[in-house]
Specification:
Length: about 270
């Protein structure tokens, strides 16, 4: 197994406001910390080790500094810091090996880059990031993360800090992230090869007026939605291009969806 789902990046004007919006939906969310070099800071909502990062800018001058190609900072700048779902990160235990593999598939690869930040309690958290892409493609690939601590240690630490905790809404899991695309078949074949992931059956999502094409991933599937008529997917493509736009949760007691800071949060 090469990868697991790690986190979804939701860019927002105010991580504090977004954190409160999630709490109103019955989701546990906490302050994260600052990325001092990048001029950004975050709040976090965990579903076991899969999480949503609500990220915003505290220093525009720092955020505007030249960013690594295919990095999150590069994406934020290209999107002009527009509120909404931005990128997904996949977790690996061996980014050096993945860098070689992705290069062998013809992708441009940057990293692994060592990074870290301070938690609110003053402790330091460390990780490495890897960025990869194809300059011809509109849709940004996931970026890749390797945490310093093994998963079990990290889970235990996050529980002790109260970062992973029960959701008032119930035993909710992050089931999938949906990405609006023009040609799902073409995209899913490339991503399945790059990420060594298995494809699921395609399906009709009538609520979104779209056909969904699933990539199976431990911790949260990736679904490519291609428009099937006018709706949220066709609208996302017109407004923002090929981007994530929805996060689907399973395990809640009530089926409903909410708009949170220019993104859809759907409980299914």
């Amino acid at each position: 197994m090469h990868f697991q789902f790690d986190h979804l990046v939701h860019f927002v004007d105010s991580p504090e406001e977004a954190r409160e919006a999630l709490k109103e939906l019955g989701l546990h969310a906490v302050n994260g910390g600052k990325h001092d070099n990048g001029g950004t800071y975050n709040a976090l909502s965990y579903f076991d080790l899969s999480y949503i990062e609500l990220i915003g800018v505290f220093d525009k001058h720092l955020a505007d500094q030249p960013a690594e190609k295919y990095s999150l900072g590069d994406t934020f700048q290209k999107d002009n810091y527009t509120s909404g779902l931005s990128r997904i990160a996949l977790r690996s235990r061996n980014l050096e090996k993945e860098a070689e593999r992705l290069k062998s598939l013809g992708l441009e690869v940057i990293g692994p880059v060592p990074l870290g930040r301070k938690r609110p309690d003053g402790s330091t958290i460390s990780w490495k990031l890897l960025f990869a892409g194809d300059p011809e493609e509109e849709l940004a690939l996931p970026f890749f993360i390797e945490w310093e601590e093994p998963d079990e240690e990290r889970r235990q630490g996050l529980k002790e800090q109260g970062t992973i905790a029960a959701h008032k809404r119930g035993a909710v899991s992050l089931a999938s992230v949906g990405i609006a695309v023009n040609n799902a078949k073409s995209v899913i074949e490339k991503w399945a090869a790059y990420l060594s992931l298995e494809q699921g059956e395609s399906f009709n999502d009538e609520a979104l007026c779209a056909i969904g094409h699933r990539l199976k991933l431990e911790g949260g599937d990736i679904i490519f939605y291609e428009p099937d008529g006018e709706g949220i997917v066709s609208d996302t493509l017109k407004r923002r291009g090929e981007k994530p736009f929805i996060v689907n949760f399973s395990g809640g007691s009530i089926q409903e969806q909410f708009e949170v800071k220019d993104a859809l949060y759907r409980f299914i």
